[in-house]
Amino acid sequence: MTPHLVASVESDSLLFLSGQLPFDADRTISAADIDGQTRQVLANIIAVLRPQGLTLDDVVKATVWLKNASDFAAFDAAYADCFGVHKPARSTVVSDLVVPSALIEIEVIARCRAGGAA
Description:
By secondary structure, this protein is an alpha+beta fold. It has a single domain, classed as CATH 3.30.1330.40. The protein is 24% helix and 25% strand. It is built from 2 helices and 5 strands; from the N terminus they run E-E-H-E-H-E-E. The protein has a 5-stranded mixed sheet, with helices on one face. Helix 1 packs parallel to helix 2 (72-83). The termini are far apart.
């Protein structure tokens, strides 16, 4: 079943990305740990941003759902590694996720550059 959603929607000067899960190119979750799943989710976010001419540096807000509170430190380390010095506003909550093997879901809001995102 295909979910009733799109990968992103632009409104004014912002690009809203739907929540990204740690699916790889084969639409499977191959990473079993939070580090691998966080990096896969962020790679998926980059893949949605790139065609719009955007990068993680354009992200202004992230909302993160973790399945396990005990994964926070490892998630935060992988997240910081991927974002580098850029620190968007972020909310992180613990919640069950729709896909049972997923440990994380992230949605972001990015600012569109002048003449950038379509």
